[in-house]
Design brief:
The chain has 13 helices and eight strands. By secondary structure, it is an alpha/beta fold. The protein has two domains: 16-113 and 228-233, Rossmann fold; 116-221, 3-Layer(aba) Sandwich (Rossmann fold). The chain starts with 15 loop residues before the first strand and ends with a helix.
Length: 256
């Protein structure tokens, strides 16, 4: 008995592809980006080992794993963009080093992460003073604030849930995030122009619109800025909650 052999043709065109490197412990960013990125972009995902606790040491340790994680994308993929899905990890390792490590593992046109994406989003919306809400302990959050300050973005008011275990971040309720965001903006002794919800594992999407309505400010989150920047670098647009993804930036700049 012989097998059957069938002729086949290769597809003449293929969808634009983008890659995402997700922390082993992150349960939120992958479904978020599949919702936020436009359907014409095909999302490919790799994972990177990450510590159970979020500390400067565990964040820095991802640097040595990054090239291997990038090398796990399919060899036949043609990636327009690779995003590294960790805000605090980028702040600890450095955006330039993140890009270099990823490029050592995969051929890609653009590399981004939530810190570079946030800085680009602030430029798009004309923002330089943020209220910052973080899940993490002070040493982790302070590094992010320092990196933003170097980019000309002040965070005069800051609040945290003081979570040490990464697995707990995805369990923080929308009610808690909504209340904390409102209280943070209201407590600011200095005027702020927007609220940033830091961490790709924080389930921020459901509270962005309610927080914008309650505070009157743009509300940015790690996953919305990353999706926005990845889509822009790929030549298209992300869609989702918040002024940034609704494309209100031009109106805001004109009003400012």
């Amino acid at each position: 008995m012989t097998g059957h052999h069938f002729p086949h043709a290769l597809e003449a065109t293929r969808p634009a592809q983008v890659g995402l490197i997700v922390l082993q412990s992150d349960e939120t960013i992958e479904p978020d980006l599949r919702r936020l990125l436009p359907p014409e972009l095909e999302l490919l995902v790799s994972r990177i080992p990450s510590g159970a606790e979020v500390t400067p040491a565990t964040l820095a340790a991802m640097e040595s794993e990054m090239t291997a994680s990038a090398a796990l994308f399919p060899a036949g993929a043609q990636l327009a963009v690779v995003g590294y899905g960790c805000t605090s990890g980028t702040a600890q390792i450095g955006a330039a080093e993140v890009a270099a490590r990823i490029r050592a593992g995969v051929e890609v046109q653009h590399v981004t992460e939530p810190v570079t994406a946030l800085i680009a989003a602030c430029a798009e919306l004309g923002l330089s003073r943020l209220a910052l809400l973080s899940p993490y302990v002070a040493p982790v959050s302070e590094r992010l604030r320092a990196v933003l300050a170097e980019a000309g973005i002040a965070t005069p008011v800051f609040g945290s849930f003081l979570v040490e275990e990464e697995a707990r971040v995805a369990r923080i309720s929308a009610t808690s995030i909504l209340a904390a965001g409102q209280q943070l903006v209201a407590a600011s002794a200095e005027p702020v122009e927007a609220l940033f919800l830091s961490c790709t594992n924080l389930r921020a999407l459901p509270v962005i619109e309610p927080l914008e309505a309650a505070t009157g400010l743009p509300v940015l989150a790690s996953n919305t800025v990353l999706a926005w920047h990845m889509a822009r670098l790929a030549g298209t647009r992300a869609q989702g909650p918040g002024r940034l993804l609704r494309g209100d930036g031009g109106a805001m700049r004109a009003a400012g």
